[in-house]
């Protein structure tokens, strides 16, 4: 999809208003952070990947999965010092 937009002054910066059709097509939303990259062909705008939260990472864990052998061996080691 190709469309035109006008570069406008916004305070001390400039901005380009993205048409609603482009926002929908790209899955962008107002307030979302995007990354900008200058390329030989023009400006590349990509959704910025956010770091997952601890809750999102934990939700991916299978709590019924067996513990790996190396971790099981670590759990079963005898104390070597004053730890209990």
TrEMBL record:
Highest taxon in the source lineage: Bacteria
Pfam families linked to this entry: MazE_antitoxin
GO molecular function: DNA binding
Name used for this protein in its record: PbsX family transcriptional regulator
Listed InterPro entries: SpoVT-AbrB_dom, SpoVT-AbrB_sf
Signal peptide (from-to): none
Start and end residues of each SpoVT-AbrB domain: 8-53
């Amino acid at each position: 999809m190709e469309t035109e937009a006008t570069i406008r002054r916004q305070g001390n910066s400039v901005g380009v208003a993205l048409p609603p059709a482009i926002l929908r097509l790209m899955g962008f939303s107002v307030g979302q952070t995007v990354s900008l990259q200058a390329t030989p062909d023009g400006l590349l705008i990509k959704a910025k990947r956010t770091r997952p939260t601890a809750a999102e990472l934990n939700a991916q864990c299978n709590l019924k999965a067996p513990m790996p052998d190396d971790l099981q061996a670590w759990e079963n080691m005898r104390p070597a010092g004053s730890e209990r």
